[in-house]
Amino acid sequence: QVQLMESGGGLVETGGSLKLRCIASGNTRSLTSIGWYRQAHGKERELVAIITDGRSKYADFAKDRFTISRDRDLTLMYLNLNSLKAEDTAVYFCYAERTIPDGPDDHYWGQGTQVTVSS
Predict the structure, then answer these.
(1) pLDDT of residue 104
(2) Which of 94, 98, 103, 108 is spaced 20 to 30 A from 51 at the CA atom?
(3) With 0-12 CB in 10 A as exposed, 13-18 as middle and 19+ as buried, what is 45?
(4) Cα 33 from Cα 100, distance rounded (Å)
(5) Quick one: average pLDDT of 78-98?
(6) What's the pLDDT score for residue 61?
(7) Each residue's pLDDT tens digit, 35-77
(8) How far apart are CA 55 and CA 18, in angstroms?
(9) Cα–Cα nearest to 79, from 17, 27, 33, 31
(10) If you compute the radius of gyration of the chain from its CA atoms, what whole number of angstroms results?
(11) DSSP string over the chain
């Protein structure tokens, strides 16, 4: 089992920045992917950025504005949010995945942290 806990959300003005943090605990050594999703009110959850096998992948809206990073042990992960826009307002979730050969993959989610960008 893996537990994920986010922090760092808050209220920021348009153009501002925030740094989100995710602390992972439990069996993190065999995780294959770790990343961030977000869900705005009334919308589906969407990928923001994810690291798989050391490679980072970003949603188009996140490129050039957001940066994902992690420590070697996959116990800490960050998402730097820059040049924030009102449409970035959402709950941001930490996510982790473990690929299981010949079986269903394990998926883990944090409780989420609210990011509100005032226009």
Answers:
(1) 84
(2) 103
(3) middle
(4) 12
(5) 97
(6) 97
(7) 999 999 999 999 999 999 889 999 999 999 999 999 887 789 9
(8) 23
(9) 17
(10) 14
(11) -EEEEEE--EEEETT--EEEEEEEEES-TT--EEEEEEE-TTS--EEEEEEETTEEEE-GGGTTTEEEEE-TTSSEEEEEE-S--GGG-EEEEEEEEE--TTSPPEEEE---EEEEEE-
Looking up tokens 């473990």 gives: 98
Token pair listed for 92: 């941001």
CA distances from 105 to 14, 26, 98, 101 (A): 38, 17, 6, 8
| 89, two tokens | 């307002």
Which of the residue ranges 4-18, 20-34, 56-70 would you say has the lowest mean pLDDT?
A: 20-34
The per-residue pLDDT for range 89-113, each reduced to its tens digit, is 999 999 999 988 888 889 999 999 9
